[in-house]
Amino acid sequence: MSHKYRSVRPSLWYDFIYRIGSYVFLCFFLGFFFSPTGLPSGPSSWMSDVFRGCCSCGACPGMAATNPGLQNIVKGAFGLPFGLMMTLVTGAELFTGNTALVTAAVLEKKATLKQLVKSWTVSWSGNLVGSILLASMVATAGTLGPLGGASVGTAVAKTSLSFKTALFRGILCNWLVCMAVYMASFAKDLPGKMVAIWFPISAFIALGLEHSVANMFIIPLGIMCGAPVSWKTFFLKNLLPVTLGNIIGGAFFVAAAFSYTYGALGKSD
Fold it and tell me: Which of 4, 46, 135, 249 could be disulfide-bonded to 221 (CB atoms 3.0-4.6 Å)?
């Protein structure tokens, strides 16, 4: 994501198709990266154990009953931090990160409002398509067992939140996610970026906050595995308020805050 300012600069018409095609591909590919279990598994791969642990640790009744905080920490320590690491290292497009990065570019006069709308729209749509495709692959592969592991219960729980609760959990979540991206941008090597990413991302999972792109995977997966949740309920009761909350968290609490403190927004004319 270090090249975000460059990715939204005005382009010439002759290379428009190439640029928009590349951008859509990166958004689509990010749906695989940032799904809570964004890695393929197989019987000969040690990653299959990580894959299964990320999805099914929430279904451990003993841990859930006696120490739900530890349960969330375990889920947060494996899964989403890896997704954001892959995103930053490979330059894929994450909608939630773009709410801060591209907003900052607009506030610093490096991009236009039209380019911001394009970035948000294309990255959100691409992340959604990639996440649902991966969810269908996971459901078809049957890696979570016949009952879908923790995905079914998670889908029901996430779509049972009130609009206000989902909205504010989305705000707090993306505040942490965008802080992880912001801090990682200062790191000069991969271990530094990993440390900057790990703690904020693990924290939002442990706190039970809501991330729109992660939900684009886990709730459709639950639906495909038999959760009594409709697609309409998924979009209206979770994805809509969480997306709005993520935008507020990234655009206002990170981009606007730092632009006001260090950048053009806080400078008097």
Answer: 135
